[in-house]
Amino acid sequence: MTAAQRVLSWFDRRADKPRLRGRRARASRLALLIFCLCCSVARADDPRSTYLIKLLEGSSQFRVRAQAAISLGAVEASRGAVDALTKALRDVHPAVRAAAATSLGRVGDAGSLNALRALERDTEEPVRSAAKAAVGKLASTTPSLKVDPVTPPEPSGPALYYVAIAEPATRVPSVDKQALAKARAFIKQRVSQMQGVRLAPDVETSQAAEQVLKKQRLKGFYLDSSIVSVEKRPGGETRIAVSVIVATYPGRDMRAIMQGAATVSGAGSQTHQQALEGAYSGALRQLSQAFAR
Predict the structure, then answer these.
(1) What is the pLDDT of residues 124-169, one digit of tens each?
(2) Dihedral (C-alpha) 70, 72, 73, 78: value to the nearest 10 degrees?
(3) What is the pLDDT of residue 269?
(4) Which of 171, 139, 80 minimizes the C-alpha distance to 275?
(5) From CA 223, how far away is CA 287, in angstroms rounded?
(6) What whole-number distance in Å separates Cα of residue 200 and Cα of residue 121?
(7) Residue 185: its H or E element
(8) Residue 140 class from Cβ within 10 Å (0-12 exposed, 13-18 middle, 19+ buried)?
(9) How far apart, in whole angstroms, are the C-alpha atoms of residue 35 and residue 41?
(10) What is the DSSP letter of 110?
(11) All domains of the chain, ordered by start, with CATH?
């Protein structure tokens, strides 16, 4: 059973209600037929690929759409398949979104990275996990692609959190001050795009911070991070691991520790920056939960 099929089974069990069993059984039979017909799909121009796209875009049964998305992951990358899977990332049912994300990671089309990034904030954890795995796979197989090349839209809604961000620290000799400054800028960019976040100024007294928190009724947090390791691996890969401490602000009482790591193939400063951003992206995915605790 593939990862996408396990996700589909998970959502299916969660929605197990007597009135839905008959309908689900009919959809399951059709989904099984799709799977049997498409196990040997290997070419983008195969008529079965067109059939899968039609089912993914037009079926009223989420199990059928999800199985079609799973089967499309076995097709050689085509514009039609990639477009259909990318569109399915916005499907109303989370099982379809998760299946589409997994298949996009399998077909290896780098153009879908932005849409997958957006899915990392999905309300369902299995969908977020599928999107994260697909992004990691695409990043590892596309060395020239930046880990996060597009700036997401600015968040809307009232501010809830007041966040100060320290410059990262490190004991790794090869990481210079310029790299640390770039890392801080990246963290600030990602955190500022989170819903309900307002960034504190780089230099602020405790008294000034307390006044802002009291006046605007915000919760204060302080992010202190470090670059734990930079490892050059055989084959030209660079692996970077980071750690992010979430503390109160301005008191700085520790609340959580988040860790992230990323491996990127290639050489030069660009590869190093991609791995660094990937590692911090992985750690910061847990930040919303840390704020909400």
Answers:
(1) 888 888 888 888 887 766 544 444 443 444 444 578 999 999 999 9
(2) -160
(3) 67
(4) 139
(5) 10
(6) 23
(7) helix 177-192
(8) middle
(9) 10
(10) G
(11) 3-141 (1.25.10.10), 161-292 (3.40.50.10610)
251 to each of 144, 175, 196, 285, 292, how far by Cα in Å? Answer: 42, 29, 21, 24, 18
DSSP state of 167: P
Name the pLDDT band for 14 (thresholds 50, 70, 90).
Answer: low
Distance CA 91, CA 145 (A): 27
Instruction: Please list, in sequence order, all residues whose beta carbon lies within 8 angstroms of the beta carbon of residue 76, skipping any fewer than 6 positions away.
Output: 42, 43, 44, 107
pLDDT at 218 (0 to 100): 94
Q: Which helix (H) or strand (E) holds 53?
A: helix 47-58
Tokens standing for 158?
Answer: 């009232």
* In 73-166, alpha helices (H): 79-88, 94-107, 113-119, 125-141
Q: Which helix (H) or strand (E) holds 209?
A: helix 206-216
Element housing 54 (H / E): helix 47-58
Q: Residue 91 in 3-state DSSP?
A: coil
